[in-house]
Amino acid sequence: MAEFAATVYQNEFLPDGGTDVNAIVTVTCSGAGTAGAAGAVGSGAVGEIIIVDTSGSMGHETMESAKEGAQAALAEILDGTRFAIIAGTETATLAFPPVQAGPALAVMDASTREQAAGAIAGFRAAGGTAIGSWLDLAGTVFASVPEVTQRHAILLTDGENGEQPAVLDAAITRATGYFQCDCRGAGTDWKVEELRRVATALLGSVDIIGSPDEMREQFRAMMQTAMARGVADAQLRVWSPQGAQVLFVRQVAPTVEDLTDRRVEVNALTGGYPTGAWGDESRDYHVAVRLPAKAVGQEQLAARVQVALGDDVAAQGLVKATWSNDSELTAKIDKQVAHYTGQTELASMIQEGLAAKAAGDDATATTKLGRAVQLAAETGNEEATTRLKKVVDVDDEKEGTVRLKKAVDKADEMALDTASTKTTRIKK
Amino acid sequence: MNVTSLTCPSCGTPAEGDSNFCEECGAALGASPPPDGAPRVLVTEAAADEPSPIDDLGSGPISRATSQTYAPAPPAAGIPACASCGGEVGPDGYCEQCGVKALSPRDHFREQPAPWVAGVCDKGIRHSRNEDAMALSASPDGSGAARRAVLVVLDGVSNTDDSQVGSLAGARAALGALVVPLPVGMGTPEGRLAAATRAMSAAVDAANAQVESAAPADAANPASATFCAAVLEGDTLTYANVGDSRIYWLPDGGEGVQLSVDDSAAQDQIEAGVPRLEAETSAQAHAITKWLGRDSQGHEPRVGQMSITEPGWVLVCSDGLWNYASEPAALAQQVAAAATTDPAALALALTDFANASGGQDNITVALARVSPAPAP
């Protein structure tokens, strides 16, 4: 049986007249078991769909490595799991199971595994790219088996979406809250922003597969992670007192995801935010609440941060506020809060810097990427530092003085972009 | 009140194992039984000598069990509503509505033994714990000649150990001693006062025994407390105090009067001619010259009686309230502003007034609403 724990890091002391309370809440899940295992939380059947781009742009080598990747993912799907394979071009085709009507998810066993492998082996690259239609078909396939309640897909593409942005957005909206989707882009002809939009909305990850030989490992890892998620769905809940305002709710580790606008009302004072399925893992959330100031010496609760499985609260962390006129107490910024505030700014500096660079605004790009270098150093994010150094030449890490590199490998730039939201934890 | 080793002398919770302190309220268990001269003995003597006019049995000693026709208010069950907004308090101890930290039952409690008698005991704003205490009892009917109310307030001294335990146990012990009708002596005013003084002294002794036993034997600053009690029987109000908690009589629309006389440095100064305001705001104003506790130099109460014929309020309070309205007229003004005849509402209003004025100390407000005397 999965157990959740919530730990709060904050400085609860506010100066006289202070209103804003910041806290990092670390939520840890243990004993999650495997997806679909008997007795697992939210015990419904698990459905997995592998969506592979089979458009003409794929080319022979990428197509072959994509097939290998899909086969590797297939091998990780546990027996008994419901699954399907979708081949995507300008339309979406259900490659496996070969059905025209009725339940469109097969039950994994030795026989279906072999048949599905055969279907993947038969992929031929031809046609366009319409990611929205792939998502819609995945939704329809999941819906054909109502007992499947934990729904997850892996999506691989190599090119820019051929649909109007509004068409893709509408498809994303339909899929949001229904299934989760991890997205991977092969090569450098796809748009990071586009795939990130899909992955963010569908509570998944996004990454670049720069060379075909990484394909197998990436697919295996994605499916392994999905299969280790024994908790089908958990909701983060934030209660704040009457008269208070929740400034923002962000996941800040392992990646930065702003959840503020995804609030659904649980009751007048409590908002629910989706977090998807959980394995044995730990995620950090940054919650900021604005309170009406109280008299020095008063103490109150600023937020209850809870993890809910269905209607059951599995863990709760208390965020407090105490007004004090002791500046020794009130001036301190909690280390965790400071660290993640820096990491969040780092993510936006990288994304904004790369966007400016793409738009030809080198001055803005230099400033923002310079600030990113500075923040990566300050917060000890070595991965970000390494990736940044492939895009800029660093003159002074401390001051954030950089120059844009003359020649940059497109893949390095995209890798910097996709990895921008990855955060490091503070060394405790 | 006889104390067995099996129940807490303070809150009545059964004690488990060999623990020395109550799991529920923290009071010391196995506290020494009340000393000689405790209420049981006194009542037996008085009743044997002189049948009480209130003794409707008319014969024999009044046993405690039969004379207690109404029980002290039981401790509030469950988690009380948020004192700030009235919202529900969550199991985590914070209001589900406004997030204010719920006061523990010791930090803020209310009692209302009858519709005409109520009190609030509150931590205030600046202190970290509530060392004030009160205990109340009242007959169900507050209008007849048989009406009876007991209001006890103890103010635990804040720089002593465990005075929050001692004050509450002491208040309840004093209530236990005063819950039986006061003796009337020979029936003359002097005899009546002398008999009442003996009863009040016994109540102070009972409270003192609890205050003394609250702190561990080796405590550097053993618990100490003030004592203040008012007993209304029919039209007769008997009052007693040790220290600087006070009793006021505030008739409706009339001149109020402070009945108790403080045992304090400020009172000494006032008696020496220093103006009240100056004396009560001086550095030593709150130094009390008499108190209950192990290091006390004696705790004989000042006792008085008066006859009440008008409608109005009997107010027993700690300095957490009167710090902000010492003169009877100033208190009467706050009472008039509250414009209510509900003692619970007025007790809250006066507590709110003290907190709004700064809440520098613990605040206890106990009130009996004296309604117009019924037509003869």
UniProtKB/TrEMBL annotation, chain A:
Pfam families: VWA_2, VWA_3_C. Gene3D superfamilies: 1.20.120.1690, 2.60.40.3670, von Willebrand factor, type A domain. InterPro entries: VWA_3_C, VWF_A, vWFA_dom_sf. Residues 47-223 form the VWFA domain. Transmembrane segments: none annotated. This is VWFA domain-containing protein. It comes from Nocardioides currus.
